[in-house]
């Protein structure tokens, strides 16, 4: 069951007493994670930098397709930018549903994959009608060029307040950000013209309204105001830390 689309990873529903697992943390582990599971300890092919472990965290070398934990050993599981890499998504996700009753999934969206493509990404994903839909790139002839990743991952987040506000108010534009409880419906390579059109055709107004439903003006203004306040606060804190 879907709980919500968090604005960011600081917006996750993790209580103070939760025992948290993170699968595939790479070089950006969540500060709230207690246990990290990483399959590739010494290889950076699937990540953008060296593996990182914070002081309060335990690292275990294991495959996410076969987690070495008991059923419901954790209260929450985080899996950020890993699902697009895996060999067997159904088995990989089943393991997360087995070891925790709730969790958070994040991957690039269709737009994110076009703008910031990675050779190591086997799958392209999108949330459609509250379901996670994913296709193997090779099966739908999904190609990307050029790679604009530096602009959207590095330059604009560092230099543009406007971009930061947009990224908060439209967090699901370049990412699938999906908090769940129990299990969720994931469609893998569905043989359906309805789902395929989102991945293989230009996004017209009808498809955009399905992916990104229109909001009331009052909601848009409230969200923009909250995002602006959050960004300004983060900028001030960042400047203070540098002093």
From TrEMBL:
<dbReference type="GO" id="GO:0008757">
    <property type="term" value="F:S-adenosylmethionine-dependent methyltransferase activity"/>
</dbReference>
<dbReference type="InterPro" id="IPR029063">
    <property type="entry name" value="SAM-dependent_MTases_sf"/>
</dbReference>
<dbReference type="Pfam" id="PF08241">
    <property type="entry name" value="Methyltransf_11"/>
</dbReference>
<keyword id="KW-0489">Methyltransferase</keyword>
<keyword id="KW-0808">Transferase</keyword>
<protein>
    <submittedName>
        <fullName>Class I SAM-dependent methyltransferase</fullName>
    </submittedName>
</protein>
<dbReference type="InterPro" id="IPR013216">
    <property type="entry name" value="Methyltransf_11"/>
</dbReference>
<dbReference type="GO" id="GO:0032259">
    <property type="term" value="P:methylation"/>
</dbReference>
<feature type="domain" description="Methyltransferase type 11">
    <location>
        <begin position="57"/>
        <end position="103"/>
    </location>
</feature>
